[in-house]
Amino acid sequence: MMKPINPNNALDNEHCLYVAGSGGGKTTAVKKFGRIKGTDQVVFWDPHQDYDTIQQRKVRRYKTFKAFFAALRAARATKRGFKIALTVPESRKNFLKFCEVVKGFGDGLHAKRLHVVIEELPQVTESVGKEVGAYGWLLTVGRKFGFIVHSVAQRVVEISKTAVSQSVYKWVGVQFSRNDAKRMSDETDVPLSDILNLNPLEYYFKSPNAGNFKKGRLTF
């Protein structure tokens, strides 16, 4: 197994969490909001095949770890952008194996940071407490090895506190549970009533520092 190299503490934490109920636009936000550019290097945990293109770039899909590893190794050896997805049966074991494979390609001095998109995070979450394993490492240590993690979930109360706290950027769409809305209000400083009044495709985006949020609407 490959290991990450060249830790670089000068790199900022740019992890982002996307939370919205079904149909609320969270996957669309990953594709179109702009945190990911067409020229970026990106890998996807995509068991339900939600990503065919992103920023007008085709996503290459692999259905075995062997093929995914080979494609990622070749792509990461360049300075060019790429979009590579792994689609395998959805399980905690496979998810952590994906994270472990990706972890080996960390390089704090690489010309391109490596974006990691995690779709439907609650389905592979074991505990709402501290996240462990390679995913926890990507969130807490991965920043200095060039990783930017994009975690996507329908309900914030079903994911680990590590995923929430380490994602300093938060995209909040429509919430169908008051508990979820309350948690995101606490995490973003957006008033609870404003989150409860969101309509599908409307969102608040929270950036670092207290009170630093804005409202918007996704367009196609």
Question: Can you walk me through this structure?
Answer:
With 220 residues, the chain is an alpha/beta fold. Helices cover 28% and strands 21% of the residues. It is built from seven helices and eleven strands. The model has no long low-confidence stretch (mean pLDDT 97).
How far apart, in Å, are the first and last alpha carbons?
A: 41 Å
Percentage of residues assigned to helices: 25-40%
Q: What would you call the structural class?
A: alpha/beta
Helices, by number, come to 7
Please count the beta strands (DSSP E, at least 2 residues each).
Answer: 11
Which stretches are poorly predicted, pLDDT < 50 over at least 5 residues?
none
Strand order of the largest sheet: 5-6-2-7-8-1-9-10-11
Apparent shape: globular
Largest sheet: 9 strands, mixed
Mean pLDDT, rounded to whole units? 97
Strand-residue proportion? 15-25%
From the alpha carbons, calculate the radius of gyration and give it in angstroms: 16 Å
Relevant terms:
7 helices; globular; alpha/beta; two-stranded antiparallel ribbon; single chain; 28% helix
